[in-house]
Structures are given as structure tokens and as C-alpha cells.
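> call design_seq(struct)
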């Protein structure tokens, strides 16, 4: 067993938000999660009541594994996966996952062992989300934009035993393995995914080929189920937009509940067809890698998120649902391949609030856009802008503004609030008073891998602290204004970079924009805008500044405009920490 992921350590180090207290005193627990305390004595007394019993007939630890098993029965002959010429049914997917779990066990994977992936949205990624936990392991889906140095760091930190790598990223993986060897760290075994059979001469020694493993597995393998639904099912490293990534641990219970919640948020009925434009490595594909099995959906896999591929697959496979960060929406509406859809496609977008102009253009193309919000620490989606029918009759501008709000909590969360981070009091529901968004419930992470201090800080006060600043509207809908580290304080006034970006986005020449603080000896800080223009457009920085002054209070308008491409993570987030460094290097404006 992996020395970190033994049961006692998981309970002690990771799950500080658990209500059980077997490994903590009540006083220790109360410091971390006072509102969530459960009276174990009362619970035990109910278990001793005559006539009540917990047994196999009425209790099974919740796990997404059950979604696949049900789909293999209920949707046996329905298409589960499509990828180019590759097509599987749910019955076939179940058999492949059982055999793959068997093969992983033969390679030494047992309870608590980590299996990492470095791959795009190909069928193997979907299968590994089930096969790894079915072998008792924990899946760790790594960002495909990591370089070899970062990859080596994360493989070492997570104590990965097997790395399943797509042939596209094999060179990066091999370099990472060599880095580990030079540090006298035992590297993981490599399993290579390839669209075509690999010649033996191209397979490095002591590595395995994915499809061969699947075919060599045992179909009668006895699936390993979690002993406790709080057992880890996955580790997701944060995107590293601000600092060194942290390993966020998900439980079987949380993954089960968030999968169902995300399906409901997306308005999915039985047997939807989902286009994988969201990276499966990002929050386990917003938990839809598991959730689609719950409803017998079809996974349409694409190796690259390209507007033409998106359109072609929507038409060919009659796609009903998809997802993507605002940058994906921006890419679609500005693509030369854009065209009205033959049928409506529901698309969920998360991340920074999408500009109203982008929402309007997406609707014109035939997309139904829903806005959600969450973090890696909340299994991805945590809230959504639940749409009210009476809003349909509002003027377009007002309707689109409402759609950019982050909304209300989903059915799997116990609480979402906007609080003063010092007093922990809820802010006024006036749409003006800012506070920090905080979460509480079963779909909040178990904790940060091997980082007790960060875990306790994140849960201090009995809520998960997001670090995002927002307001609460009178109708109970939240609206994100900024990251706490991104807010600009100029002359004593708080300036939301999101609001400045929204105005700049509305300029017809602007394709992308990110706003950060620039030092200013007089004002303290002033807005600095990094702008990427659309092809064929040419404007000056002063024109952007003048445009902003016409559409917002002058003190909020940027005083500096820099034209360049924006650095992004593979999930579409702008790496503002890099832009802040650039703005700081410019020196004071005054």
C-alpha cells in the first residue's frame, strides 16, 4: 500500500472536514469545523436501538463505480464512447474497465496506490476514471501543459506508481522519469496510450502499451470497492495560476454526489450526447467523466479543442451538451468556421464571468449558455446561475447581465455564502457589499495532499474559503467580483478587474483582455490592461483608455494598456501572476 494513502493517515491528515472524530479530539475538531460536528454518542445510541441494523441489504458506500455497473445493465447496447472510428457500447466499456482494473492489479496497484495520467480527451481517459478505483487505486489526472520538471515534481509528491501517458506527451514523461532517476527517486511504471499500434522498437524498456494491457486483463476480476465512502478516489492538482500547485483530494462520496449534481445543473436527461471540450484532467472533467455513466450518455472524445472539430462533431453525432471556459466560447464566436447550429446545444461555461457580448453571440449561433462557478476544491462546479422563466422577457442587456452571475448552490452542497473573512458574518444582500465566497458540504475536498497547514487554513471557521470576492444580491444570487489577490486598490477605492475587463471586452476590436494592478506612487495602484486584438484590427492604448472612460467611472479606467497574447493554463485560465510580475516590472506610473 502507498505509504501516504493508508486509511489512518487519510483520516488524520486529509479529512479535516469529516464529522467523524475517531482520530481527533472534539476540541481539535471544533477548531476546524464547529458547525459540522456530529454527536457520535447520539449516533451510536441510534445504532443500538432494537430493530435497526446497518447491513449489506441497506448500506453500500457511495462510489461512482456503481454508475458504470448500472449503465452496463440498463444501457448495455447504447453507445458509450465515440472517438473517430472507435466506438464502444456501455456493455463493452464496462468489460474493458474490469479487464483494465485487473491489469493494473497485476502491475501492483492495490488500495491507496496512485495512478497518474497525462493525456488529452481520448477514450482511455474515460476508462481510467473507472478502472483505477475499481482496482482500489486513486486516479491523478495531470495537466497536459506541465513541463518535465513540474511533472517530475508532482509524480514525486503524489508517490505515483504508474503513469499512463499519451504518445503525444511521451517525450515529456520520459524526461521527467530521467529527472527522478538523477535524484535517486524511483520513477513510476509507464503505460503508453496510442491511437495506432506502436512498433516494438518505439516502446521504451520496462513500459507497457495501454491496449495490450486491456486485452490481457481478466474479465472475471473482482472489483475492489471502497471500505469507506470517504476513501480517496482522485487527486487533482490545482492549475498553478498563482503558485505551486496543491494536490486536492476527492472522496468516493463527494465524486458520486457532485457527478449527480453536475448532471442536473446541465439539464441532462437520459442518454445525452456530450462533446468533450472540457479537459478530462480538469476536476475529473467537472465530474462528468463519472456523471455521464449515471445517465447512459455518449462521450464524444476529441483530441484537440478546435472550433472546426467542435462544429463537425456537433453535426455528425447530434451533440446535445458540451462545456468550456469563457476562452472556448470566445474561440467559437471569433472562429472563421462559425455558423448557426442545426440544433440547440446546451453549453456550460465556468471560470471568469463570460462577457455579455460573448453570451449574446453564442445564443445567436444556437447555443444555450449556462454559467456555473466553482473551484478544484469543490470538485469543479459548485454553483450555477439557475435561470428563472420570468427573466426571458427582460431587455437583452439586462438578461445577459443576469446570466453572468454565479448564482446559487447546487443540490450537493449544504451551503454557499458571501462572508466577511474576519468576522465570518454574512454580508448584506444588497449587490454592493463585497465579501469572500465560502462553501460547506459533502462536495468540498477532503483536503490538500500532505499539506496539513494549508488544509486547516482553508477550512478555518468551519467553511471552505475560496479566496474569491463577491456580492450577494437580494434574490440570493452571488456575483463574483474578483480574486482577493486581483482586486485593485486605487486611492482607497476597490476596483474589480472583472468589471474593467467586461467593459474592454465590449470594444469591437478586442479579442481577449486581462487587467491587473500596476504600482503607482500617488494612487497606490492603478489598472493595467493586457489586450489581444482581433485579426485585422488596429487601435491604440489611448483609444482603449478613452473607451473605458466613456463606459465606466474614470477612476476605474486603465491607465496602462499593453498589447500582447495572454498567458493561459490549459483549462483556459489567464495566468495573472505572470501579468502582475510584468506590470510590477514596469515600475510606478506616477
Amino acid at each position: 500500500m502507498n505509504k501516504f494513502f493508508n486509511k489512518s493517515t487519510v483520516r488524520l491528515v486529509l479529512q479535516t472536514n469529516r464529522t467523524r472524530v475517531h482520530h481527533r479530539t472534539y476540541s481539535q475538531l471544533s477548531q476546524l469545523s464547529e458547525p459540522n460536528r456530529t454527536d457520535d454518542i447520539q449516533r451510536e445510541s441510534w445504532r443500538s436501538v432494537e430493530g435497526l441494523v446497518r447491513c449489506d441489504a441497506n448500506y453500500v458506500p457511495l462510489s461512482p463505480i456503481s454508475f458504470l455497473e448500472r449503465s452496463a445493465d440498463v444501457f448495455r447496447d447504447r453507445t458509450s464512447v465515440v472517438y473517430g472510428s472507435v466506438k464502444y457500447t456501455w456493455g463493452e466499456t464496462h468489460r474493458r474497465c474490469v479487464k483494465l482494473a485487473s491489469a493494473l492489479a497485476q502491475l501492483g496497484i492495490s488500495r491507496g496506490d496512485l495512478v497518474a495520467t497525462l493525456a488529452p480527451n481520448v477514450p482511455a481517459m474515460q476508462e481510467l476514471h473507472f478502472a483505477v478505483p475499481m482496482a482500489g487505486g486513486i486516479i491523478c489526472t495531470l495537466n497536459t501543459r506541465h513541463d518535465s520538471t513540474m511533472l517530475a515534481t508532482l509524480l514525486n509528491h503524489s508517490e505515483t506508481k504508474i503513469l499512463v501517458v499519451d504518445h503525444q506527451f511521451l517525450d515529456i514523461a520520459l524526461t521527467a522519469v530521467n529527472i527522478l532517476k538523477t535524484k535517486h527517486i524511483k520513477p513510476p511504471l509507464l503505460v503508453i496510450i496510442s491511437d495506432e499500434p506502436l512498433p516494438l522498437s518505439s516502446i521504451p524498456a520496462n513500459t507497457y502499451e495501454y491496449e495490450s494491457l486491456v486485452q490481457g486483463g481478466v474479465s472475471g476480476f473482482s472489483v475492489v470497492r471502497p471500505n469507506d465512502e470517504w476513501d480517496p478516489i482522485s487527486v487533482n492538482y490545482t492549475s498553478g495560476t498563482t503558485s505551486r500547485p496543491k494536490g486536492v483530494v476527492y472522496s468516493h462520496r463527494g465524486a458520486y454526489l457532485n457527478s449527480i449534481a453536475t448532471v442536473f445543473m446541465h439539464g441532462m436527461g437520459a442518454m445525452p450526447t456530450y462533446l468533450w471540450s472540457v479537459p478530462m484532467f480538469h476536476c475529473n472533467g467537472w465530474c462528468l467523466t463519472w456523471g455521464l455513466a449515471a445517465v447512459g450518455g455518449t462521450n464524444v472524445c476529441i483530441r484537440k479543442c478546435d472550433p472546426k472539430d467542435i462544429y463537425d462533431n456537433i453535426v455528425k453525432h447530434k451533440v446535445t451538451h458540451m462545456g468550456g471556459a469563457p476562452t472556448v466560447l470566445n474561440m467559437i464566436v471569433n472562429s472563421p468556421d462559425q455558423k448557426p447550429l442545426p440544433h440547440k446545444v446546451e453549453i456550460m461555461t465556468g471560470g471568469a464571468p463570460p462577457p455579455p457580448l460573448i453570451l449574446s453571440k453564442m445564443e445567436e449561433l444556437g447555443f444555450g449558455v449556462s454559467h456555473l462557478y466553482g473551484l478544484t476544491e469543490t470538485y469543479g462546479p459548485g454553483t450555477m446561475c439557475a435561470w428563472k422563466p420570468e427573466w426571458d422577457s427582460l431587455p437583452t442587456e439586462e438578461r445577459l447581465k443576469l446570466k453572468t452571475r454565479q448564482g446559487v448552490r447546487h443540490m450537493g452542497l449544504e451551503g454557499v455564502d458571501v462572508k466577511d473573512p474576519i468576522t465570518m458574518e454574512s454580508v448584506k444582500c444588497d449587490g454592493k457589499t463585497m465579501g469572500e465566497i465560502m462553501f460547506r458540504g459533502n462536495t468540498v475536498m477532503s483536503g490538500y495532499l500532505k499539506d496539513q497547514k494549508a488544509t486547516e487554513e482553508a477550512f478555518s471557521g468551519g467553511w471552505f474559503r475560496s479566496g474569491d470576492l463577491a456580492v450577494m444580491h437580494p434574490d440570493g444570487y452571488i456575483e463574483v467580483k474578483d480574486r482577493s489577490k486581483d482586486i485593485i486598490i486605487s486611492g482607497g477605492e476597490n476596483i474589480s478587474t472583472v468589471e474593467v475587463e467586461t467593459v474592454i471586452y465590449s470594444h469591437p476590436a478586442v479579442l481577449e483582455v486581462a487587467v491587473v494592478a500596476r504600482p503607482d506612487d500617488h494612487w497606490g495602484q492603478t489598472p493595467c490592461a493586457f489586450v489581444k486584438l482581433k485579426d485585422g484590427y488596429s487601435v491604440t492604448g489611448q483609444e482603449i483608455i478613452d473607451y473605458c472612460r466613456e463606459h465606466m467611472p474614470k477612476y476605474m479606467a486603465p491607465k496602462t494598456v499593453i498589447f500582447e497574447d495572454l498567458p493561459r493554463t490549459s483549462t483556459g485560465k489567464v495566468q495573472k501572476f505572470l501579468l502582475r510580475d510584468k506590470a510590477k516590472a514596469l515600475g510606478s506610473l506616477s
